[in-house]
Write a structure and sequence with these properties.
There is one protein chain. The protein is of the alpha/beta class. It has six helices and six strands. It has a six-stranded parallel sheet, with helices on both faces. Strand 1, helix 1 and strand 2 form a beta-alpha-beta unit. The chain starts with a strand and ends with a helix. The N terminus is likely disordered.
Length: about 150
């Protein structure tokens, strides 16, 4: 598993982010089980990844901190997502019903799942062989997902 969080100290400019996505895309061509986890660092740099794998739709595990522009994030992530598992981190989480309503009108099935670990497990269990599980939103959500995958090893 490769995450933007692992590269956190090095992801200070667009070029480094682009290198990260290019490397991840190259790895995903060889391994269909690649999981993309994106923190609250902007989503525009994952567009190339989405274009590379247009048939792969993400099962999106998404949580955001209160006070963030969730509508914009939802709109950007909708084009690569097949289903959304709305969840909240232990800290500063937006209420789940309000978060789920941000995906209204975007043509996605939305399921509320309490707890990041539970949401990740649910997404993985629903994933078909060519699906991608995408964990995105707040750094708190990404951090909890990352801890789950570290424990799972």
């Amino acid at each position: 598993m490769y995450t933007s969080g692992q590269c956190k100290n090095y992801m200070t400019d667009t070029n480094t982010r682009q290198i990260f996505v290019e490397t991840l895309t190259e790895l995903a061509r060889k391994d269909p089980k690649i999981i993309l986890i994106v923190g609250d660092v902007g989503f525009s740099y994952i567009e190339d990844f989405a274009k590379e794998f247009p048939k792969k739709k993400a099962l999106l595990v998404f949580g955001a901190s209160d006070g963030k522009n969730v509508m914009a994030m939802a709109e950007m992530l909708a084009f690569v997502s097949a289903k959304v598992f709305v969840t909240g981190a232990k800290y500063r989480a937006m209420p789940l019903q309000r978060l789920a309503s941000c995906f209204d009108g975007l043509g996605l099935e939305v399921e509320i799942v309490a707890g990041v670990e539970n949401a990740v497990k649910k997404a993985i269990s629903c994933a078909k062989p060519n699906d991608v599980v995408l964990v995105a939103g707040s750094c708190f959500v990404v951090g909890e997902a990352f801890e789950f995958f570290k424990k799972k090893k």
